[in-house]
Amino acid sequence: MPKFLALFLLPLMLILAAPARAGGFSNKNLPVEQRPAVSDAQLEATIKTKLNKSKIGKDGFRFKVQRGVVTWEGTTNIGQHKGAATRMARSSGALQVINNIKVLNGEKGATLRKAYVQP
């Protein structure tokens, strides 16, 4: 084997062998489409349990789960509840979240305006 080829292949082989020496690949390194996901039924049950224990459960949000995608519907007067619903679905194992929750009374915008008012 020519020296040039050996100098090229040796580092390449070391790089490719590194994950095997480190205990293999983890799911974090895989694209979302290839990660093992919980079933839709498990995802739905987990979200229902969390929703019942959470303050945002009082808002009456509705959601559906289809192929790992959680779609939220409903309305709230508290802007942070919309974000909490998204985080709840993601932490339960959702691959994607579509959040169609509407914030009433413009609270989110009012909060931002108050935060940026010049004295």
What would your notes on this structure say?
By secondary structure, the chain is α/β, with parallel strands linked by helices. The chain has one domain: Histidine-containing Protein, Chain: A, CATH 3.30.1340. Helices cover 47% and strands 15% of the residues. It has four helices and five strands. The strands form two sheets. Strands 1-2-4 form a three-stranded mixed sheet, with helices on one face. Helix 2 packs across helix 3 (79-92). The model is unreliable at 20-27 and 108-119 (pLDDT under 50).
Oligomeric status of the shown chains?
single chain
Distance between the termini: 75 Å
The helix content, as a percent range, equals 40-55%
User: How are the strands of the biggest sheet laid out side by side?
Assistant: 1-2-4
**What characterizes the major β-sheet?**
3 strands, mixed
Work out the radius of gyration. Answer: 23 Å
**Unreliable segments of 5+ consecutive residues:** 20-27, 108-119
Please outline the helices and strands.
Blueprint: H1 3-21, H2 40-53, E1 62-66, E2 69-73, E3 75-76, H3 79-92, E4 96-99, E5 102-103, H4 107-115
